[in-house]
Protein 1
Amino acid sequence: MLTGIAVAPGEAIGPAVVARLRAHDVRYRIAEEDVPSEQARLAAASARTRTQLEDIRDRTRHVLGSELAGMFDVQILMLSDPLLRERAEALIRARRVNAEWAVVEAGEELVQRLRAIEDPYLQERHGDLTDVLGRIRANLQKVDGDASWLNAQLARFNEPCVFVADDLPVSVAAQLDWSRLAALATDAGTRTAHTAILARSMGVPAVVGLQEATRMVPPGATLLVDGTTGVIAVDPPPSVVEATRHRLHAVAVPAESLSGPARTADDVPVLLFANIERAEDVPFAWREGAEGLGLVRSELLLGGQPIGQVSEQAQVDVYRAVLDHAGPREVTIRTFDITPEEVGLPEQMEVEPRERLGMRGLRLGLARPEVLERQLRALIRAGDGRQLRIMFPFVTSADEMARAVAMLHAQAERLGLPAPPAGAMVEVPAAALDAGGLARHAAFLSIGTNDLTQYTLAADRSDVRVQHLYDPRHPAVLRLIRMVVRGARRHGRRVAVCGEMASDTILVQVLLGLGLREFSMAATSLRQAREALAGCSIAEARDAALRALYDGDIAAIDTSPAV
């Protein structure tokens, strides 16, 4: 039994595919009839590797001389060593494992043999062997891109699998064929990590923060995943497997479609919106009672492609597909919240790609105006005649918002089309503290509580080491949210919470007491939020907000209705 952080509810069962994506190492069992084709994959990859090494050797000899070229003769000999190639083929046949796994296992055996030899020269060939092994694996994974390669592996299974990974970057996750996944389990991650949010949106049970699952779970093992409790059973008894399959495959009674605003116990209407990543998710959002789409993450909508390479027309087509699905309902599309690496500009990267306090969101858009202007033109064209709102992420000052709005109107004038309303996502304490200044330029404000919490408390939400410090109930976070509500109200602007706080049945009542009447969340959380709101009156919500803000100290709080 493994226990991690439950991030996407539901139960699933399936065979384990174990992936160490940082090392490009994916392991799974194969059927007996697939042994010949898997050995053929290995043979083809070895042949490509030999051709590449010979070409490198010949070019090195021509440029640098025969002595340095001889290094690659050593690697070619290693490639031909029966202890590597023949052993890998034997492992595929005897243990019915995929070629990548067999190459790693055979390579590790050969490394141990080299280390046991007392000859210093042979011991130093460890680096050459690692190079050869890496090249063979790369040639086995000859499909372009991590996600394409992973999808090709997942397509080999007759049933959805449980994907067990060390980490799963959201740029890769967005391109996965989620229909092939019964469940997701990762060593890294937290509840508010983007991949966890994506899993919830896809309705795929997920458990993260397992730390050593990729080491402890045997590839091919049957896994029973409970995304509600965060528990994973490895190779449970056959009776449990049979009972679980029977329960999961039972014909479910379709849930009643919901419509209209949610209402509190004292009949105050509250608007609930859905966050989505794909156009095909829109019908499910309507069935779950969404009034509109409160957050469409445009970078995920484009499938994780390098943003700088996506044409204006391609963006128009993608955005229009979502808007066509939405019909007359309101849709808020967020502009790209990405780093320079994700936009296809690696030459600008001076920090770690995971750094979230540098060039991202609107900062990057203003620094690379050609990228943001192209997206704004696509949004204006797609939104013509539709209920589109544009939201800028990671806004830190009123000046940034003013520049972004000016850029939007300039592009609209260039196209001869009306500019959609533009709002700001409040994710940084500076933006919350100056919410009134932002509201002078923004048509609406949306509070991104996930980032606002981590930046307020200096607790990276993707770092399991400080997960206990990441607390959206912290009074400092709640007071910043109240400041945003008040700043928006002073200028007659709508304000919503768009983050995981909105899907917490207790916190949504606190937020209601702080004056909020709009919430946006994963569509899978809409029903429980509606039920939580129905069980709470405004007076009870204000009491809950007071307790949360002041820990029992009754003090004055602005309780006038939100705009």
Note: The radius of gyration is 27 Å.
Protein 2
Amino acid sequence: MATFLHRIGRFAFRRRWLVVVLWAVVLGAVGAVAAGTTNTASSNFSLPGTESQRAFDLLDEKFPAANAEGASARVVVRAPQGERVDGGANRAAMEKVLAELKDSSSRVAQVSDPFAAKTVSADGVTAYAQITYTVGAADLTDADHTGIDEALETGRDQGLTVEASGDALAEPEQGMAAEAIGFLLAALVLVVTFGSLVAAGFPLLTALTGVGVSTSLITAVSATFELDSSTSALASMLGIAVGIDYALFIVSRYRAERADGYDAKEAAARANGTAGSAVVFAGVTVIIALAGLSVVDLPLLTAMGLAAAGAVVVAVLVAITLVPALLSFGSERVLGRARKRGGEPAPVKTVNGAPRATVGRRWIALVMRRPAAVLVLAVVALGTLALPAADLKLGLPDDGSKAPSSTQRKAYDLLSESFGPGFNGPLIVTVDDRTPATAAGTAASLGKAIAALPDVKGVSPAAFNQAGDTAIITVVPGSGPTTDATKDLVANIRSLAGKSQAENGARAMVTGTTALNIDVSDKFSAAIAPYLVLVVGLAFLVLILVFRSILVPVKAALGFLLSVLASLGSLVAVFQWGWLKDLFGLEQTGPIMSLMPILMVGIVFGLAMDYQVFLVTRMREAYVHGADPRMAVETGFRHSAKVVTAAALIMISVFAGFIGSHEAIIKALGFALAVAVALDAFVVRMTIVPAVLTLLGKHAWTLPRWIDRILPEVDIEGEKLARHDPEAEADRGPAAETTPQLSGRY
């Protein structure tokens, strides 16, 4: 691996224009394809293998009109206090609003009359009308959205309270792109770290190239593969973060190799062979973890995982090819503060003849002085942060989870107050049988049985399709969609359905958004443990291969679990409990998005392995080269601390930038990943890891001989480069004799 990447680095350095032009052609080609794609991302959600999805599929087949894909909106009207909507002036005002809605667009298919449809509350204070369109939500124009807004304002001007919900409404615009915020923060970290605009610019340029290619590809295939709108955002988030970090590691190693006396070409090649090997390994772990999300068998999660994995693949390819080429353009200027203007190495800052005690030196000295105390304190701190995770509640976002200031949330609250908390989460019970008479009899008896269950506010008469073999029964719970009482009601209805099918053979199923939400939560709860075993087991096996140790992988896996649980606890505390919600601009708290925990596990696993590789391989390298265990830990930490710190800060900056997103899943995921990276990099990898390795001593680097014999050798640090490439030492300049102390001080 190292020698292969060394050759790639040499080739890219020598043929810099060819490499740059090739990437420019790739970017232009995929960009042109994406620009020519007229289809938009899909908003469909399916959950194969669950009862609610089977019922949805049945409705598609038997009631195609009921499952039409046209956009829709629900307009809720409330009369002034003490009045009714059917009063003379209020009714006239409401009819004016409905007429304006009907004329707001040629795409409007129908606007229901609340009085004819009997969608007026029992006290006559609130009514709602249903609007359907002939096209999907993605095909509505700004003029269509403006038409809805103007109609709402007309009703408000007449003294009515008018709010709306549904996918026909325009999504709120973000003030500043989340990607731009994170990107600017990452740029600042790079400038401070390198002290060179050129060195800082290379990772930013390569990250933009990689993200441009990957997001363009996702856009081009989004309609074909029905990718969700958040898929591109996740790929962009990860692409920027790992793209900058991977380039950072290679540029940093290049500066170190130059400080060791190698000329520009050889330094770039060696940086690609050493840091590039670690980049490939780290990238592969992220890719496997993300691709492994497909085991959950949820199309949305599979698409997000594969798209994000593809973005990481592109980031790795850009890092090991384009970065060496760019180094050829700025081989001297990229050194920044590492050299004087005349090209000589900058002197090492000393105090009384000894190297100055940097923050990293002081930190590792503290950790190694009291390793047991530091370990206990760090574990207790992470355990405390993880405690809220015990109260984790999963759910799917709906209008009730939107900001209280939004019209969707106001409409949700109006309906809950006037029609009951369960109105916003009705259950749909389907009954089907080959024999219409059996279907009719079962629907009638089942409807009566459901009405007698606890927490049922209303049961509608069965509605049959034209063939008479399938019926729909709408059940309105007495409690809200996310309550335990509603979950129990779904279980009770399914129990009744099972007994009914055993008696007469007709199949009955429960579906609807609320039932789907419950099934999603159950599916993820069942999948999280097997997936954790999969990724942790993978981490253990791969790290044994890299570090030739049993205890190091055990420590790495346990540290990963600690950081994941602590970040989940932080997510619950802020997004579910509401702690510090104002600090993060969070207007509404509620259940955590169902796919969040397992998606976070997959991403954090890969990122945790990044820092594990870049930090601990330097420690192992020092030990293999003759340092005693304590000195190996200290030396490896000194050589890696600054670049790992910079990499973590960049990741945190990029992820934190997405907290400003209006998409609930992206906002929460950005927060969770920023916290997870901070905890894993600074608490687990840079505190717990050196403390544990100090306590273990030489036992940390031992491996049973029978295991060692069967494992292939992985040369992450490029120890065989000199043997495989005789040109290496020939390219080493005279500075090697005078500047070895600069190695690792990047």
Note: Residues 340-348, 728-746 have pLDDT under 50 and may be disordered.
Protein 3
Amino acid sequence: MSTLNNSAEHPSLQLERVFNPETVAVIGASKDTSKRGNQTIKDLQESGYDGEIYPVNPKYDSEIRGLTVYDSVAATPGTIDLAFIATPAETIPDIVEECGDAGAAGAVVIAAGFSEAGEEGLEAAIRDTARDCGVALIGPNIQGIYNLHTGLNLLGGYEMPKGNIALLAQSGNIGLEFGSHAEGRNSTGFSFNIGVGNETDLEFHDYLEFLDDDEHTDAIALYVDGMSDGRAFLQTAREVVQTTPIVVLKGGLTEEGKQSVQSHTASLAGDSDVLDAAYEQAGVIQVNRSDHVVPVADALAKLPPAAGDNVAILTDGGGNATLAADSLSNRGLSVTALSESTRERLRELVPDAPNVTNPVDMMGLQGDGDLSIFYDCAEALVADPAVDSLLLTGVFGAYESRGPGDGDTGQEPDVARRIASLVEEYDTSIAVHCIYGTQGSPALDALEEAGVPTYGSLDVAIASLEKLSQYGAHLSTADTKSTFQLGGGHEQHSLVRDALDAGKRQLSEFHSKQLLDAEGLPVAPFDLVTTAAEAADAAAEYEGPVAMKAVSDDIVHKTEADCVALDVDTEAAVRENFTTLVDNAKSYDPNCVVDGVLVSPMLDPAVELIVGVLRDEEVGSVLMFGVGGIFVEVMRDVAFRALPLTEHDARSLVNEIDAQELLDGVRGNAGIDREALVDLLVDVSEIATANPSITELDLNPVFASPDGTVIADASIILDTDE
């Protein structure tokens, strides 16, 4: 629980005081111009901050940069809204307490030397003090924060371009890198740069609602090493993205990266596949390249979400058309077919064009060199109902500044502004890639100022269109996706309670199937027998051969222990296998307790799938679905969703794996009953949600056929700490 959840002050009001303070105390103020305690005062004075600045340091009794120095926070006049603390780590707890006594709403702690350096106790002391005192703590281990619209510059001498993207970064250097990326883009900048650091008190999700409400913020960009509470982030982000898009670059997705994360922020990094799926559920847009963060966030801040993935390409060069079509296809976007009326209109406009199907290739500037032809063609394309977004790629934007002729006549910027007006007129996203985009031009400036992003990289332009399409797709289905609220108050199943009371971490296959069967899931028939005679009687109840498995809470992987016998088809074989299976279990683990042998009928051949529940370090409980059976580790064709699942989540999960042909039926076989599978996934989600002690659940294989689904094997592992 952060200070915001534990404060007497309303969270939004408290963060308003933190990020729009009327008074700032600089604790650790210094006369040494090389120290942060001096640099911060200089930054505030030179960045236009118009509030009161109170230097605090008991070592001085004179002025610093023309300001009176105070020997303590308590000695400052009036109420302190925000404290900037530039003192060593070990001094922070006492200073935070002093800030709380003075009524400070928040404190920015830049010092390192906490959990990222193995000092968990000191960090815990700071956290506890901040929460006891109601001081919202930002950091530690950060570069600082900056409200660019008020001049609240606490970054230590660094400047950034002002704009409408709020930045939350766990790395100061990465945040500054994003600033440099924005410097190279006209009309792109930041409303805030907030260092998140170790999330000792305030965590990523604590900032989102404030930024969503901020009048200067139209998109939020994050650099994340690892989140302390990924589940709370998903819950909050799901609501915020309805009005303010969120873009995330996640570090620590490889084993090597995770090692770096632990030393840098002491946060836990989640698995890449799990995070990708959870972010998609929440509508968070994820990018995997640092140079994509700013342009993607800029596009989402300025342009309307795309209604679909159909893109029209308008170009004056065949090579641009070819590369654009390839890149769009590789990113899952469609180079849509144009209507006949649109094609006819384009033929009238550019009769000599080699192609008016899509991509539309104008083959250079047509006719008398009138650049307005670009507007006319662009309008014809965005007016086509099949077009969700437009990519203009080639020389446009630099004809007058870099092309042949008499130079800048002023026509190209005017045409650029007319093209930009199409965004609002047709509610359609437009991205412009110019081969001279990195050099800039008056026409490109006109596009940017009118709210149309321009790019020097075709790949980055198309990546932005891809994310606009993803964002639009989420908004159209957001109400049907998970809320990420796991709820509470459910009484855990008696089998789970009994196991926990007995100190067991695992349910045997028998007890796992008992639980699933009691909850109405389609479990294959099963009998637990304790003698060879009982085994023979149980097998006689089924037509055809049976499967037999030794049952023990102490053995997870029965196949490895030779505790499984399949296609047992005679009474003698049943009796013999009973004895063999029990002996094999004892041989595998002499200390194991064997409850008996499970007898089930052999199932007809069907598609073998896996359904599982696992607990991700960052996201929490997630459901896994994919191709199962003995090849599950080899195929690795699985997908994930965070719990709890809705029907939409389950259906999208089924549709996501690669083996769609297997599900649809191959070589004359009928496809599986997808709705039965969706029902099974939702039911498993409900069981896991109602029983939070279930940390792992494995159903493998699940037999899927046109007649429904049948669970052939099951195991459940519990968290005894729940």
Note: The two ends are 18 Å apart (CA to CA).
